[in-house]
Amino acid sequence: MVKKQTPVNREDLKPRLAPLPAGKVTFLFSDVQGSTRLWEEHPEKMQVALERHDRIIESLTAMHNGRVVKPRGEGDSRFCVFACALDAITAASGIQRALQDEPWQTPAPIHVRMALNTGEAELREGDYFGNTVNRCARLRAVAHGGQTLLSRATYDQVREAPPPGINFKDLGEHHLKDLSTPERIYQLITSGTPCEFPPLPTQNPRLNNLPAQLTSFVGRERETREVARLLAGDSAGQASGIRLLTLTGPGGTGKSRLALQVAAVLAEHFPNGIWLAELGALSDPSLVGRTVASAIGLSDESGRPPLELLARYFANKQALLLLDNCEHLVAASADLVNALLQACPQLHFLVTSRECLRLVGETIWPVSSLSVPILGDTKFGGSALAALGQYESIKLFAERARAVTQIFELDEQNVITVARLCQRLDGIPLAIELAAARTRLLSVEQLLDRLQDRFRLLTGGNRAALPRQQTLRALVDWSYDLLTDKEPPGQSAGEVSRGGREACRRSSAPPPFGDPAPVRTRTSCRRRRGDGRGVARPTRELFHFLG
Description:
The chain is an alpha/beta fold. Helix content is 36%, strand content 15%.
């Protein structure tokens, strides 16, 4: 008797997969960057490449106890789920490394962006739904090809014991499209794969209070680059950089403008913001902390001290605080900076002051005048404009004069006169800008002739600037007022200071200069240079006071 055979169900021949995990899970979303263009231009090669892409993701997902749920969106995207966040991160790292090592036959390598998020999700009919899924999709949308992003929830699951060879980079808080709360995003760093990417294209609010600059920034390219490098540290994120850097120098040399330019360059390096606190108009040292907190937008009705508010706010934030014009509040500024450096391990400071704060770990960067030519009896064999037009001080004068009167042009006829004018002003940016502002009424030849009475001539600065930055006389008054009885002048300096600032105003002849003892022992105004940009005779008495 022949038994009747039961028809074979082909579904029974397939390997049985473990059920999809429920409860708290970790999702891994991925897709290929620029796949549409590659499909359009190389359809045959993309078909082969995508098959290999699928096998890599599916095999490594299974190897680390995950499941590929289904494609999510376009055909090159993948939607994977893991019961354990550690497995998900290990799989993502392995996938990126395998994709990096794959010898792709396409004209350009295949770059895959990934995102991981952990949380509760609703499992229904073999698919997942809910906010955890949506947040992972939004996170993937802002990643770059070859980059893997983690949510804070996923990072918290593995930060205590990350897999070997895997590190994380904090990219700060970001606002993702259609999500009401910001997400703190971390980047997965795997050895052997790229770790440097452009800023995330997120909908971040403006995390700084830096003012928009209304004039161009002239010169100081090297200084800007080097100061930014010192504060930023290692570009790979392994070193945090210098945490306190003070720009020092005489008044009018452009410390504040250089600091603002450096801050703008570093905007993407400090994900939690760059904040400017202007102390120039402040006279009460007890208000330094409150002024800084107010600049950031911190307020507290419970009456807690400003230092406590600042310490709590910056406790775990990678941010830069720019304290501008601290010279008249050095002690109070130093106390605040020292306390916050100790309380906030990722907080950095860029300070401008005519004297340093004298704190442990402080890096001092002297800001000198702009470059000026040493003319003497120099004769130019070729073009004077070509030879002189590249000096920073001459460039600054030309740009500011052109802003005042559109008809001004630097040419062969006036460039030597402009050079002599900048030389007489020692390349001091504020003095040069004040002189350029007078070109609406005077020619450069007239400016040079009248420079002997520079306190009367160099007026009419920006009305919106601090009062001491509107005229040269006001700048000297401010500098003189910084002198204290505790800092007795030296012999030659005393000859200047005995008559006070009024005597300085009345005298146009330079005082005995020689090698005077410093008026203020810690200021930087007496720094002499041998590069042709040092103190020139017509303004030597000015430098006694600009410290």
